[in-house]
Design brief:
Strand content: 25-35%
Largest sheet: 5 strands, mixed
Radius of gyration: 12 Å
Length: about 70
């Protein structure tokens, strides 16, 4: 199945801002991010514009990974 991965910040520079990926049926967001070396705990993850902690991906899903911004 195909999903679209949209990255921001340093991961966009490392992997490119947008990727079309072929993933196994039933793959979880956490598994996909781990394979890319991205820590879900340090990022906001949205699937089809909804914030998620983790979920099973479906064909056609759009996954956005946004870095948590700290400042002061």
């Amino acid at each position: 199945m195909r999903v679209t991965l949209i990255l921001y910040g340093e991961h966009a520079l490392k992997h490119g801002p947008r990727k079309e990926l072929e993933v196994e049926e039933g793959k979880r967001v956490s598994e996909l991010l781990r394979e890319l070396g991205i820590s879900p705990g340090e990022h906001h993850v949205l699937v089809n514009e909804r914030k998620v902690d983790d979920c099973r991906l479906k064909d056609g899903d759009v996954v956005k990974v946004l870095p948590v911004v700290y400042g002061g």
